[in-house]
Fold each of these.
Amino acid sequence: MSGGGDPEWVHRTGPELHPDPSRVLARLFLPGQELMSSGTSRAAAVIDRILALDEQTATAVLADTVSRFADRHHDLLGTFRAHFSLVAHRIAGAAELSATRRDLLGAYFTQEYALEAAALFNPSLVAHPDQAGLADGELRFVMSLRAVGEGHVSSIEFRTGVLGGAGGPRLDAPDPHPSTGTVAPVWLSSDQRAAPPPGDRAEPARDATYWVRYDADRPLSARVVFPTAAVESNGIEDARFVRFTGGDRPTWHATYTAYDGTSVAPRLLTTEDFVTFESRRQEGPSAKDKGMALFPRKVGGRYLALTRWDRESLGLTSSTDAVRWGASTTLTRPGRPWELVQLGQCGSPVETDAGWLVLTHGVGPMRTYGIGAMLLDLEDPTRVLGSLQAPFLTPTAQERDGYVPNVVYSCGGLVHAGQLVLPYGCSDAVVRFALVDLGPLLARLQGRGE
């Protein structure tokens, strides 16, 4: 499996996703430098210059800006007005300004951000909450993606599509006008909502809970989860979505890594409809570093999660509330040549009749990544029933080159029609799919087959 091509039960297929620099957000722009000689904010100086324009010039500049950018965004004038409201406290008599002047000020404090200009990778796949209107044997899915833009800042994007029929997964065309939605922060505690303080630099507390809500009338692919809390100011990375069952209705959870430019911390994203999301921190001895992934249901009355708490081994932890996690039990440590640098998981476990199927990633010579698998007991997931001795997926010659070379990596797949449908990132440059025949894979994990 490690060097002679794919096993016969692994089928690489289309479609492919590539980074698209034309997918841009209209983000708040604030001049970052201060005029040290006077102690005056650059924002204040920019405002003064805009206010000094005569009305005719202001009208012409606004009209030209709208004509050049309106087709690249959903409700561009609405964005200008929202951004004006964030800097209005700096302007004496802001309420008396003309609508044109207010919109123009908003335009000057807006920038385009190409959210996937640098990379698009590390997907996860879950069943869509809406399965209406499909043919027999079809399944609609949601795929999350890690997008990287200017400054190596990561965010979460979505795509939708359908499984079933010939030709592999069918992806819907993404909406051309992505949006970051409306954020409702929590400023003091996880059970208290409060209005944010005024000002253009307001942000939630460093690791606060917050909510993001999107326009339900717009496609899911228009929704972008962008860094909000200070703990994730430099990116939200590698969301591992899982459809969680056992309550009154299914819930979708995603563990992800928050990065502030210096340190990382695990957080949990939760939604019931992919319209409103809650983000909250994870706590406890196992909630550190990268690599948490929730099980799709409780086991023994407790939430379970895979961890890489020691940065190189695969462990198991539990929680009563999916917030505070206890110490980890180590399931396996690096021991095979393809995983001697480190190992971890590639998404949440998949429940099968044979046990919990866990996709693993290993890092070997030349920082080459491969994807393998192990099987855990359904009732006692601390029991390892079997594991592959070598990865079943490694980079092909066509997948080796990219932003980070020699990598294949996934944040989770799902089972459909007897196959594990696995989206995976190739060297952080393109996303592809592999269809893995479940029967032969489980047979090998149970010590049967070649």
Amino acid sequence: MTAAQTFTLPAEGKTLIEITREGPLFIMTMVDKENRFTTEMCKAICDGLDHVAAVVEKEELTEAVLMTRGQDKFYSNGLDIEKAFSVPGFTDHTFMPMLNKILMFGIPTVACLNGHAFAGGCLMAMAHDYRVMRSDRGFMCMNEIDLPSPLPAGMSALLRYKMHPHVYRSCVLEAKRFSAQEALASHIVDGIAEGVEGTIELGKKVALKIAPKAKAGVFYGMIKEDMYPEISERLMKGAKL
């Protein structure tokens, strides 16, 4: 895939994600309006990750990084409840394995939060290695306590390991909506910028800075396996049953 090419998924039907390349930077853009998670969306993301990994391996890249983003005012507004829960085992067999695939991806990852990242969208962002967020619009939030709905162990583990204890408490027990400024102060995100374009440029800047770490090859993924064994085990527990 060259810089001029755009790779779309799924291959047939409505496009859900687009992947473009700018040198070592692979940009995965979710293009389904609010980018709610369904079986089709999760599969498209996983297939996209496999595509990027295959290109990195084929070209033996020593600099590579994945950045994900949404469009307009949404990064992702979480699960499409009606569609997701019409599929038996969606959470255990589809959604959480997708989070694990991002968490353990073999090159650096950056979530570029161009807008709202609610519930499943927040979890997807937290599965990345780094996060940047738009400062003038959008929130990060886990709203299960207000639905009300339980929070599966794998999702809890992801948030607990990626957040300071008092931040985790506010996130899951209060359904706190974190603005960009609050997310930065709470060390949930690594940088903020104004507007969609400003946030994308910041995301690219962060991504290109860490792209050389891909030279570690298989060791990059191995180190992450040692960093997050409990998260991965809990995310994948249901999928193994």
Amino acid sequence: MPPQTPVDRPAASSPCPCRSGAAFGECCGPYLSGRAAAPTAVQLMRSRYTAFAVGDAAYLLATWHPSTRPRTLELDPHITWRSLEIVRSARGGPLDRDGLVEFVARYVVDGERGAQSEVSRFVREDRWRYVDAEG
């Protein structure tokens, strides 16, 4: 396995990269640090986007369902994630066992803008985990 790139997390008082409007320390920070588990599929989606934005491959792997999780994950250091828009969600609440989150994540790579659109599937067993993209 290649060496992990150090994760450069924002300060607790900085705006959260997921653009929820909350500070990192009150939004995705507790999840990425392992102090708490995301209570909903939408919050897990936000925290996974933030993990991509800060380069935290370990968090992404830890929140991926074992049935679909890759053995390793290398993040492209040339991609700068710019924004996350949650388009819709279905189920995925604290008492649900599964959920869907449709999102658009915008990025820049080599000076070119791009967007990734997806409907992500999540399941809650011991905690919420990303399964795969629908379709």
Amino acid sequence: MTPPEAPVDGTDQPGETPPAASVCAPVRLTVLQNRSDFLKAARARRQGTASMMVQARRREPGEAEGIRVGFTCSKKVGNAVARNRAKRRLREAARAVLPGEGRDGWDYVLIGKAHATAERPFKALLDDLRYALSKLHGDRR
């Protein structure tokens, strides 16, 4: 049985209903979960900013597809509430920046910093991630 406020079919809705999925296919971010992937990223390039440390590595061909990203915060960031808040902010920053600035075939690990990640204004957090990506993907001579 459906709840009383749920429409039986699409005709009950005024106007045109939006599509269930976006018409344009956004870049999908896959979350790193295996420790080995985090360790591989730790041995690769890294760039620090005021609010986070970003580690990045180019994957081997055929290893995985798309952009993969991981998040971590040590106990230096604070208690569980503070670490989770910092990781939530890093996740949102990654969702906003990586589809446009990240590169396909790369793994990124965003590491929160004590006090800075949770307290920095969100726009500055986004700018920090963009800066780190530009440095990581720039020419290294």
